[in-house]
């Protein structure tokens, strides 16, 4: 504010020195004096308004505009935030994922026979997910299903999840008949092209996925990450137990 006032006075003084005659100088001097008084009054109003605004700010916030007080207020806010953060992170109900970057090898969405959607997020809910690709016209597939159901009943509470997947959507009645006969309770769903990369050209073909969504190294020589052909309950159980350890 002082700098502004000094600058105005300097300008006005410079104008006064530019006069040519005594009469003109006197006349211009009176005008400059009046202008200067007007400017001073205007500056007084500005200063008064500024002071009032500052006072109102203090009255409303209970603080001053000094740097020290601002830092104290900022510190108080940060401290409060830190407290809330610590309270959140130490809460017993807080769960922190062990896999920060969940990036499953297969991204898919399929529907079971009841219309329920199943996708890759299912992997994170179970220690091991077994996906069995089968068809209702495949004898070994149909004969194996009671063995897989027994596997599901005995290991589902230990972390095993099973999904049966078929592509013969034109044979739904046969599919339902097979399921009823085998007493299947694990979800049976229609095929998704996302599974193409893991197909061997044969059914049944079975793959296993861990809780992080990654394909497990299960193979019987036909494919790097797939088991081709049917198995007995004992063979499947032996493999499942090795994954659940």
Describe this protein's structure:
The structure is a single chain. The chain is built from 6 helices and 7 strands. The strands form 2 sheets. The chain has a 5-stranded mixed sheet, with helices on one face. A two-stranded antiparallel sheet has the order 1-2. It is of the alpha/beta class. The radius of gyration is 41 Å and the shape is elongated. Helix 4 packs across helix 6. The protein folds into 2 domains: 2-89; 109-244, 3-Layer(aba) Sandwich (Glutaredoxin). The protein is 48% helix and 12% strand. The longest helix is centred in the N-terminal third of the chain and has 40 residues, at 22-61. Strand 3 (128-133), helix 4 and strand 4 (160-166) form a beta-alpha-beta unit.
Notable traits:
elongated, 7 strands, single chain, 12% strand, alpha/beta, 245 residues, two-stranded antiparallel sheet, Glutaredoxin, 2 domains
